[in-house]
Amino acid sequence: MNSVRFRLLILALAPMVVLMPLLLFLGMTRWTADYDEVLIANVESDLRIAEQYLSRLMVQTGDELQAVAGSVEFAQTPPLGRDAFFEEKRAALGLDFLYFLPRADMTDVWPVIQSAAQGQGRTEIDIFSGEMLATISSDLAERARLPLIDTEAAVPTDRTVEDRGMVIHSATPVTLRGRDGVLVGGILLNRNLGFIDTINALVYQDATGGGSRQGTATLFLEDVRVSTNVRLFEDVRALGTRVSAAVRGKVLGEGQTWLDRAFVVNDWYISGYLPLTDSFGDYVGMLYVGFLEEPFTIAKRNAFLAILGAFVAVLLLSAPVFLRLAKGIFAPLERMTHTMFLVQRGNLSARNGEEGGTGEIGEVAGHLDDLLDQVQERDQDLRTLNEELNVRVERRTAQLQSANEKLEETFRQLVMSEKLASIGEITAGVAHEINNPVAVIQGNMDVIRESLGEDGVAIRTELGLVDRQIARIQTIVGKLLQFARPGEFADLKQTVPLEPVITDCLVLVNHVISQAEIGVETRFDAVHDVRIDPGELQQVLINLIMNAVQAMGSEGVLTLQTMDAERDGIAGVCVAVSDTGPGIAPEQVNDVFAPFYTTKQAEGTGLGLSISQTLIQRAGGLISARNRKGGGACFEIWLPAAVRETDALTASA
Hints:
Elements: H1 4-13, H2 15-69, H3 72-76, H4 82-93, E1 97-102, H5 111-117, E2 122-128, H6 130-136, H7 138-144, E3 146-147, E4 161-162, E5 165-176, E6 179-188, H8 193-203, E7 215-221, E8 224-228, H9 245-253, E9 258-264, E10 267-277, E11 283-292, H10 294-344, H11 359-452, H12 460-484, E12 494-496, H13 498-508, H14 510-513, E13 517-524, E14 530-532, H15 534-552, E15 555-567, E16 570-578, H16 608-618, E17 622-627, E18 633-640, H17 645-652
Parallel strand pairs: 13-15
Antiparallel strand pairs: 1-6, 2-5, 3-4, 5-6, 7-8, 7-11, 9-10, 10-11, 12-14, 15-16, 16-18, 17-18
Helix pairs in contact: 1-10, 2-8, 2-10, 6-7, 10-11, 11-12, 13-15, 15-16
């Protein structure tokens, strides 16, 4: 009786007491989950059938409308008999409205009508207002009107009546001689009980006979039931009731199909809600099918109770025998199992001790304690080594990261320094080479004046023009030298109003803008002036305008706007230069101000934006670039506002 063989034999029978309840629970849980999945799959299949029927009805409506539009009878019907013809066809086809819309009278914004006007027939679900329904037919408006019924768990609303109509809206082109236009027809789905009962009959053929799936179908306009066979009472349909807020949020708010249990008016249903979109692509309603959950809940409960009762009966008969035989072996094994559980959870000091039992099991418990002693010792050693290694790795990683950041920063500064140094040398050399011939020209002009004497009066205007152009060249050379060696020049900042500067810039580049179909829009909303050299500001603005014109090509809109803008607590003015061109490649937005960067390989030097950035930064401002949401690029210049003398005196006082 005390042998290991006998105890193992008893242990082999023990799972009936220990494992069978767990397996029973897991099995029933899994069976219930699978059962629920089957129910969800069923309602999903039902929803697809309803969706296919609605789609078929829409296709059929479009086909019938197309057949009427192309019929010989329609072509031969005189204008005076057209109303009677349409009424006859409307009744024959089961439509709620049918009319011809000449192209000359076409003002509708409905996408289905616009599509038909372009030669492509189209059928969609659309929402007509009560006024529009009344324009078509007072009967349609009255049929669509539903009083709203307060519904538990629905989104709160102040509305008391739903007078809009959900219609199958179809239009097809008419290209017959003398009848150029669109043929429009449709079906009102509000209170269309034949439509919704047909869906219910297709999906739940046994519902009326009391079958296992007692289902319903509903059409929603947004969250209002406008056509349904759900009952408020035995003979009263739940028209005007509303769906719960949870279903509305997921289906209409997120555009997702609902496949789950839901409370429908007065009972729980396994439900499927499909979002419906109109011709504009907006979610305007839902198609619902579902069947009562209660019969299936009762079936699951009965099955579970039957299996549970059978198991309890078997357990009560066998439990006394199992408990008596297993008493001598379960306690030590449970103790060892508990010890291992504690060790697994991190308690390495847990041991069996004297409770490990006697005999072979006791020896196993002792060996287990010895092994746990060794595991605890080695774990402590490993933890110590791991902590030391982590400290070293973190220290070394921090050093490498710091060194890498310094290296990257140094490299960026070096590249920028090299580029700017090259620009300075080139600019200074060019300016020097230009200054020499300009000086010679100026000297010879003086000689010409002295040589001509009184005879020079006849060409005094021309000589003055040459002098002004020489002065202009000297000014430009001075700007080049100022860019190359800014430290050698005094600060020439002035208080500048932006509107005259921008206006002058547009005059200077008008010859370029006028060569293409480019419109110019200006908005001067800034109140403050700025402090900057007006020539430098003009140089920056002309560069940005020329870039925008070149980016747009043959046509587009150039927009220049000024506005007051505060930055880091400092009052300032923002100047935005926007275009409708292709914009800047996203990966290149951060590189446009780099020296020598250009997208015009055969035309530009890549220095325009870099120089512009230097001039704006020297004035204490910032320049940035971004892409507009509607297309095109936008360059924004921010400059600090000029402090007026009165403001300065007030601040000092």
